[in-house]
Amino acid sequence: MLPFETIIPYFVPVLFIIIASILGSIYYRSTKKASIEIGKKPLYTERCAGKVGKLYYKGPFIRVAIYDTFMVVSYLKQLVIHFDNIITVTEKKILLTKRLFITYRDKTETKTMYLVSYNPGKLKETLETAMKRQTPA
Questions:
Q1: What is the predicted pLDDT for the residue at 34?
Q2: If I label 11, which of 25, 34, 64, 69 is the partner at 20 to 30 A Cα–Cα?
Q3: What is the DSSP letter of 107?
């Protein structure tokens, strides 16, 4: 058995490597594109924080891409939301951040996510403009 004094110098570097690997893995997985995105140019793309599903992602671990007929929210997996499934898009200021709440239909249930964007006005404007182009007059 190793004495306690020989383990201590290795503890911090090993812990750092483990945490960096986990964060790097989350970031890498958020860069992956959904199959529907391949070959298409997004109208707007941004990295942000937010809550999708039951998990809250801090920092730039969520990638949002808006296309002509759908949006993709990429985190540990890729969530494709077609504009006809979006119910509401609202912007709320909570404490010091502006959050963009998106309520959408996902198969059999209604879900809400929020995104903490660096430019929430631009994100909301681009999303609403793309959604209006989809809606017949």
A1: 87
A2: 25
A3: T
Q: How far apart are CA 50 and CA 70, in angstroms?
A: 19
With beta carbons less than 8 A apart as the criterion, state whether 115 and 57 touch.
no
C-alpha to C-alpha distances, 37 to 83, 93, 117, 133, 134, nearest whole angstrom: 15, 31, 21, 19, 18
Place of tokens 């809400």: 112
pLDDT number for residue 60: 85
Q: Does the reported pTM lie above 0.70?
A: yes
Q: Are 49 and 119 in contact (CB under 8 A)?
A: no
What pLDDT, on a 0 to 100 scale, did the predictor assign at position 44? 93
C-alpha R_g of the chain: 19
Residues of the chain with pLDDT under 50: none
Please give the structure tokens belonging to residue 61.
Answer: 């671990």
| Side-chain half-sphere CA neighbours of 6 within 13 A | 3
Instruction: Return all residues near 47 (Cβ < 8 A) that are at least 6 apart.
Output: 30, 60, 61, 62, 63, 64
User: How much is the pLDDT for 80?
Assistant: 93
